[in-house]
Amino acid sequence: MAYAAGTDVSLQRSVSDLEKLIRSKGFGGFVQGIADDRLVIAFSSAEGRQVRFIVAVREPDDELLLHMRKVIKASYGKLPTNAQEAWEQHRRQLGRALLLTVKAKIECIEAGIETFEDAFMSQLTLPDGRTVGTMVKGELKQLYSGGQTPPRLLPALREIERHPTPAMIAAAWDVVDKARRGSGITKLMPGLGVREIWEAMYDAALKDRQ
Known about the structure:
Blueprint (H helix, E strand, L loop, with lengths): L10 H14 L3 E7 L3 E7 L5 E7 L5 H12 L9 H29 L4 H4 L12 H15 L8 H8 L3 H17 L9 H18 L1
Antiparallel strand pairs: 1-2, 2-3
């Protein structure tokens, strides 16, 4: 079941709701762009971190018509009778889904689950105009398909794999020991130690490179 598949709220209304939400949370620089093939919104945090969402809109064809009839039938709403109606409904659905996405990210920030940078990491805009998500995608593809870690993506990982210094190991054990004592654990369970030590070594390596 697709969220808001049968909504009758217009795309323009959803974008307006987004702007109100963003401004009510103290974010600024709201910009919107609605085209036939995409929806773009951008805003910035109080610290000047710029965020940009680019949502692709599918072509109004028979494939989209079948898709929208299927997802609407599984939930509620009036079934589109042609590709144009399906396309318009598709855009309305995207608007509501995008609003929900931004709301959820803001809730995570306010609850202390994530920072602004964590929540909007993929959409953060870099000085060259790209988003962090766009920059990382190519390197992630290389990471998973080639079996090799891109040096720019995780520079400290290679340092750990090849040169785990005594300082890194000591820092790792210190982190694990503090976490263990803080949780009231007197003995690490089988299988937990390796992951905890590796993660602590990775954090230590990042700090060591700064």
